[in-house]
Amino acid sequence: MRVRVLALALVLSAAAAAGLLAHRRADDGLLMKSALFTWESVPEVATKVGGRRTVFAAPTATLDELEYHSTTLNPGQSPHPPHTHPNEEILIIKSGEVEAYVNGTWQRAPVGSLIFYATMVPHTVRNVGKVPATYHVVNWKAKSK
After folding, report:
1. How many whole angstroms separate alpha carbon 123 and alpha carbon 111?
2. How many domains does the chain have?
3. CA–CA gap between residue 107 and residue 104 (Å, rounded)
4. Residues 6+ apart with CB under 8 A from 69
5. Is a pLDDT exceeding 60 seen at residue 111?
6. 108 pLDDT above the threshold of 60
7. What percent of the chain is modeled with pLDDT above 70?
8. Contacts of 142 (CB under 8 A, 6+ apart)
9. In this structure, what is the dihedral angle of CA atoms 62, 87, 118, 85, given to the nearest 10 degrees?
10. How many CB atoms lie under 10 A from the CB of residue 19?
11. Residue 61 to residues 26, 28, 31, 34, 90, Cα–Cα distance (Å)
12. What's the CATH code of the domain at 135?
């Protein structure tokens, strides 16, 4: 329980510090403002592997883009094969049985786990349970120098 509270506090702190604007996209040129998002207010879009709730992806005063979304994976599914990207990423497991590909190995990630993926390191997750699994993703792109 303590890990879940810590993980939720981390996500909420990141969102508050960035100053959020509901459902803003980075291409409109506006900086995010403070906002509150409820789970019910963000529609889930069906995907081939489950569903996705995109809460925001927009520039902030200190980042070119701050993105937050939630992914639900159906049993046996993965969002993609291991891949890399230049930005760092944090995943927080909300529900279900998930394994994370971290530093070349599959590791069990129980509910409440926080996963940090460093830049250009192959990573992914998979649902190894019998029911859907949901996780939150915080992803950011630093300002260009």
Report:
1. 18
2. 1
3. 10
4. 52, 53, 54, 55, 57, 136, 137
5. yes
6. yes
7. 80
8. 63, 64, 87
9. 180
10. 16
11. 12, 14, 7, 12, 20
12. 2.60.120.10
Distance CA(43)–CA(107), nearest Å, equals 30
* Residue 134 structural domain: 2-142
**Alpha-helix residue ranges (DSSP H) falling in the chain:** 2-18
**Residue range 121-143: average pLDDT?**
97
83 HSE (CA, 13 A, CB side): 8
Cα–Cα distance for residue pair 109/102, rounded to 1 Å: 10
Residue 53 token pair: 């709730």
Residue 48 tokens read as 């081939």
Burial of 144 (0-12, 13-18, 19+ CB in 10 A): exposed
What pTM value is reported for the model? 0.79
How do residues 40-92 score in pLDDT, each as one tens digit? 999 999 999 999 999 999 999 999 999 999 999 999 999 999 999 999 999 99
For 117, the enclosing helix (H) or strand (E) is: strand 114-117
